[in-house]
Amino acid sequence: MTTPPPTIRLGLLLRQAHRRAAAALNEALGPLGLTGRHFGVLLLIDRDGATTQRDLIRETGSDKAGMVRTVEDLERLGYLTRTRSATDRRVADLTLTPAGEEAFATARELAGKAAGELFGMFRAEETEALEDLLTRFLAVD
Fold first, then answer.
1. Residue 105 belongs to a domain
2. How many structural domains comprise the chain?
């Protein structure tokens, strides 16, 4: 039996690692009524300020229907608001509400604890190297 080339095996390992990390994040955020996809949107809005669904779709790789559901969930929870863009009336700007900022702060703490458990087996340098490698991998277009 032959060992597959590293690129093939790496793809599988990345997929399995993503599933494990997503499951841990979903479990950690469950008490807030959030999932990893909600957290990703909150993270991007917190980072970028007001944004649009189109921007979020581009940043997350989500499909339009999935992003609509995610934004509606967060709006229903009172974590974000949609307001018509002043520059393009066809577009809604999304911003965090004070409750959304508070929920995101709590979610960030819970996500940090989950990440600590997931990556606790690695030395700080190893985690930094992994993050650097993945960042460089994603920057290649």
1. yes
2. 1
62: domain CATH number? 1.10.10.10
Contact (CB, 8 A) for 54 and 128 = no
Q: What is the pLDDT of residues 95-123, one digit of tens each?
A: 999 999 999 999 999 999 999 999 999 99
- Indicate whether 11 belongs to any domain: no
- Report residue 3: phi and psi, to 5°: -85, 130
Detail the DSSP E strand segments found in 10-108. 80-84, 92-96
Each residue of 47-61: pLDDT tens digit?
988 888 999 999 998
Nearest to 36 by CA among 117, 114, 141: 114
With respect to residue 35, please indicate whether it lies within any of the assigned structural domains: yes
How far apart CA 5 and CA 107 sit, in angstroms, is 38
